[in-house]
Amino acid sequence: MEGVPFEPLLVGVSGGCDSMVLVDRLYKEGYDIAIAHVHHGLREASDEEACFIKEWATARKISFFMTRLEWTGRTSSQAACREERYAFFERIMEETGRSRLILAHHQDDQIETLLIQLIRGEAQVDGIPVVRPFGNGWLHRPLLHESKQTLREYALQHEVPWREDASNAETTYLRNQIRHTIVPSLRDMRPEFEQAAAAAAHARQQIIREQAAFVATYLERCKEAKGIPVARILELPTDLQRLVLPTLTGEMFSSDVIRHFVTWLRVDKGSDEVYYGNWRMRRAYGFLIQDRVIRSMNDDLSFQVGENLGTYHYGEQMVRFSIGNQGIPLDAIAFPLRVRPPRPGDRIQLAVGSKKVSRILIDAKVPRYLREQVPVVVDANGVILAVIGHRIAIFGSFELLAKSYLMIEW
């Protein structure tokens, strides 16, 4: 398959037409593959889909890895599902020694992503990259230049079985709205729209790859024993400054995070230390210093909205903070927030009255010796916003009028 080296591969398979075509082609072309499947636990059909993929893999003597997500007491948003999926893929890659993750995103996904980026006003409208760093290896999407229709025709011609996800027909999420409403309208207006959009994304990504290579070389040459001089980074044009964080970490970030990082570099005041997911960036005596941080359960962390939003790990607990259209109304929160262990007398506001955090943990049958390790999120006034893994506060009077929300997902 073009662009995919003959190395041991991990293939993410959902059971849908796209991923089944991908894994079928890789298998027939002689690649050493293992299959990773995430059972999201959100649909009745998920059990049958997992069994279907496992049987397909077993019949071909292909290694099969699966995890089932549990959502008790937490939000199963698209972002949370994606975070869990990628964390699982990365773990299996590390455990099996496979450095290449292969996913089945195709041309239709590319076009939908471009439109989403435009609608959201992203600073960089560049779609999905064909190849990017992932964990300690690489993520490949070799089907990005093929349409969904082409993949379906292959499946029918070669008798590749698949399972249809009924939720793809729903229009609850923005991507599905674009897929079923906006794209058909654009196709009617300009039949060649999809090919033109895909070509534009490909050209843009080629430019970004060349820019990223330049930035990587530039940063390496600028690097000193104390770190990278911030002044040298700020000599770069703005477009290249936006590539510094992804280049240093080898990870992808949203436009909001990139924008914040660049602003933080330019403004020599405020916090000298910021976190982006598991990466800590420090500014000391004019130098930028980076390191990877895995937070422990007992870390006592303060952060400002727009500064340290992202994903944090407390022991084996993963927590994601973001701004969205559901969750806790921002008007009800006094910043900065703090994540800490529970204390005697802690109470959380619920739909009817409040409840002691200790009682919530007792009701959840959390052993006494583990209760002090369960983190709580507290605002600047000491109001408990969430008991991680168990409850999120409810502020009824605020929620009716709120425009923006803090989403806390685990």
Summarize the structure in words.
The protein has helices at residues 17-28, 46-59, 78-96, 107-119, 148-157, 174-189, 193-222, 230-234, 238-241, 244-249, 255-266, 357-363, 368-371, 396-399, and strands spanning 9-12, 33-39, 63-68, 100-102, 131-134, 137-140, 228-229, 273-276, 279-284, 287-292, 301-303, 310-314, 317-324, 328-329, 337-340, 347-349, 354-356, 376-378, 384-387, 391-392, 405-409. With 410 residues, the chain is an alpha+beta fold. It folds into three domains: 9-195, Rossmann fold; 223-292, no CATH class; 301-409, no CATH class. It has a six-stranded mixed sheet with strand order 3-2-1-4-6-5, with helices on both faces. It has a five-stranded antiparallel sheet with strand order 11-15-18-19-20, with no helix packed on it. It has a four-stranded antiparallel sheet with strand order 7-10-9-8. Strand 19 (384-387) and strand 20 (391-392) form a beta hairpin.
Q: Characteristics of this structure?
A:
single chain, 410 residues, alpha+beta, six-stranded mixed beta sheet, 21 strands, 21% strand, tRNA(Ile)-lysidine synthase activity, Lysidine-tRNA-synth_C, ligase
